[in-house]
Amino acid sequence: MTWASDRFSSESLGALTEASAAINSTLDLDEVLSRIADGAARVMRAQASSVLLYDRRRNRLIFGAAVGEHGAKLLGRDFDARLGIAGHVLKTGKPENIVEASKHPDFFHGIDEAIQFQTRGLIAAPMIQRSETIGVVEVLNRADGRSFDDTDLELLRVFADLAASGARNAQAHARLKKQNLALRQSLLSDAEVIGTSKPVREMLDLANRVAPTHATVLLAGETGTGKEVLAKHIHRASPRADQAFIAVNCAALPETLLESELFGHEKGSFTGATAQHIGRFELADHGTLFLDEIGDISASTQVKLLRLLQERTFTRVGGNQTLACDVRVIAATNRDLKTAIAEGKFRDDLFYRLNVFPITVPPVRERRADIPLLIEHFVRRAAAELALPIREVSPAARELLQTYDWPGNIRELANILERAVLLCDGPALLPSHLPPEMTGNPERRSSRRNVGLRANERSMILQALKDHHGNQSAAARALDISRDNLRYRIKKYDIAREEMA
């Protein structure tokens, strides 16, 4: 800073250094902005100063902080970013020294009038970070009554550059906190278990008993029964409720990607690993990791998972550093793991580590008493998500919903009701709004549904893949399912690549 030492006094340099240290000593955005405004006034020996942040989406300048006799009146005020000296500085990216502010054509009188303040002299400098102007620092009226000079302007420019870095870091920190909170809320928003039947009461009793502990839980049940919802319920009732809940569908990822997703990887550990990747276990540290379809993981992944459960340590793929991890694991499966053990497809020692506290999630056909509550819940949810009126369910439609076999369980029920709400134009959901397989005679409804979903599913998937020459993304779109869902079924039905051609 030789050039700065020549240009600025030692007093100014000391004030600049002190202000910069104060600004960068916290990541709280409001505190950073307040320190910028206070530091600017002290460094420039001025009566007042303010920090205006640029809201690019709305093209507005917002008073993030202000010091001076009337500073408190400015907080939160905003105005068109094309107005005023600040607007001009924002546009040009260059500092300005205005000797008689009230006579300048760009001066915006509205702020002075609103807070009953008289601006005489004004200097303003842009806060620029990585070639982007994120705001403007303004300093008003030198305390000794003199006008600001070119040295003051240059000093403010240097100060604004230093302040921009602190403000940008604080903004990024605030954004991450919001994203994290939003992520947790979205993950746990459907954590409510619906039902009062005996099977559900017994299931919840077990869940509530284990929730306050750190014990590993294994949830067993058919596809679509709501195992992830129960896992979220356990997390929310646990001492880890204020930490992350991370879910992984083990069947949706191939072996190489699954290990990377779970444990992370180091840069250069395999082709395409251009940067270090933080795995789900690290993201879930001190929280809960939900491993869905645990019965589908490979033998090598089983070994790594067993080590983690035993020692609470792991290494990233391609790494040699041992990392400690405090994660509560909740696993889920729709497979019979004891049969998989007998067939040599699943390690018995891993099973016993996972099966510390098993809970069975009942299928819908074993909890028919809950169907009316589930109908009401999913109709209301679908109406809210689709921004449509809440519909009544006609007695005839309700009877079909109550007696249907529900091979797809709660997930199928939710999807069918969402479709019905979307199709319904009248005051009530009718049988005509339900799928054809539900509206035949009762003896044939279940068998037709089972044939459609089980016996013919493999051929339907195979045909879609053939129609699109093995292109999984195109086949998934044709089947109206996600690509991950399609890949899971390809693995489930052992569809070989040669068959897809």
Tell me the name of the CATH homologous superfamily of the largest domain.
GAF domain
Instruction: Report the strand count.
Output: 15
Largest sheet: 6 strands, antiparallel
Strand content: 5-15%
Spatial gap, N to C terminus: 68 Å
Strand order of the largest sheet: 3-2-1-6-5-4
Structural classification: alpha/beta
Which word captures the global form?
elongated
Short description:
The chain has about 500 residues and is an alpha/beta fold. It has helices at about 1-5, 10-25, 30-45, 85-90, 110-115, 150-190, 200-210, 225-235, 255-265, 280-285, 300-310, 335-340, 350-355, 370-385, 395-405, 410-425, 440-455, 455-465, 470-480, 485-490, 495-500, and strands spanning about 45-55, 60-65, 80, 95-100, 120-130, 130-140, 215-220, 245-250, 290, 315, 325, 330-335, 355-360, 390-395, 430.
Write the layout of secondary structure elements.
Elements: H1 2-7, H2 10-23, H3 29-44, E1 46-55, E2 60-67, E3 78-80, H4 84-92, E4 96-98, H5 109-115, E5 122-129, E6 132-142, H6 150-188, H7 198-210, E7 217-220, H8 227-236, E8 245-249, H9 255-263, H10 280-283, E9 288-292, H11 299-311, E10 313-314, E11 323-324, E12 328-333, H12 337-342, H13 348-354, E13 357-360, H14 371-386, E14 392-393, H15 395-403, H16 409-423, E15 428-429, H17 442-455, H18 457-467, H19 472-479, H20 483-492, H21 497-500
Parallel strand pairs: 7-12, 7-13, 8-9, 9-12, 14-15
Antiparallel strand pairs: 1-2, 1-6, 2-3, 4-5, 5-6, 10-11
